[in-house]
Amino acid sequence: ETPAYFEGGQNPLTRSSPKRGFHSLAAKDVQIVNTGMLARFGEGAKVDIAALVARGLVRRLGGPVKLLGNGDAPRGIRLEVHGASESAKRKVEEAGGSVEIVA
Questions:
Q1: How much is the average pLDDT of 89-98?
Q2: Rounded to the nearest 10 degrees, how much is the dihedral formed by the CA atoms of 11, 14, 19, 25?
Q3: Where are the beta strands (DSSP E) in the chain?
Q4: Is the pLDDT of residue 70 over 90?
Q5: What pairing do the DSSP bridges indicate for beta strands 46-47 and 78-81?
Q6: Measured distance CA(33)–CA(49) in Å, rounded
Q7: Measured between alpha carbons, how far is 27 from 39 in angstroms, rounded to an integer?
Q8: C-alpha–C-alpha distance, residues 52 and 31, integer Å
Q9: pLDDT over threshold 90, residue 12
Q10: Rounded to an integer, what distance in angstroms lies between the CA atom of residue 15 and that of residue 38?
Q11: What percent of the chain has pLDDT over 70?
């Protein structure tokens, strides 16, 4: 009697399927910037995605950029990013700056 998992001599499905893990095709590669990294711009600077790329804080213009609240924000900085955490918004606004979310 043949076992239930026998597939008739062909390569079994469990052996032919890839075993490198799952990678979602819908996942977005979000680039992260912490508030402590913004000290390179100084006080009162206007920072957008192009300025972040020019300073080497993010790699490319194409993907979304999210601001996280690790570190202290410089005073009066104005940011334009695709997303920001609540703690990052709070730190920037407490330092007299503003965060604008762009599409």
A1: 95
A2: 100
A3: 31-34, 46-47, 65-68, 78-81, 83-84, 98-101
A4: yes
A5: parallel
A6: 11
A7: 30
A8: 11
A9: no
A10: 49
A11: 100
Looking from the CA of 99 toward its CB, the CA atoms found within 13 Å total: 26
The answer to whether the beta carbons of residues 66 and 83 sit under 8 Å apart is yes
| Residues constituting the chain | 103
User: Residue 72 half-sphere exposure, CB side, CA atoms within 13 Å?
Assistant: 5
Strand partners, 65: 31
Structure tokens at 61: 């213009």
- Token representation of residue 18: 């890839």
Only one residue has tokens 């606004």, namely: 93
pTM across the whole model: 0.73
Category of 72 on φ-ψ map: left (φ > 0), alpha (ψ -120 to 50) or beta: beta
Cα distance between residue 90 and residue 42, in whole Å: 18
The DSSP 8-state label assigned to residue 56 in this structure reads T
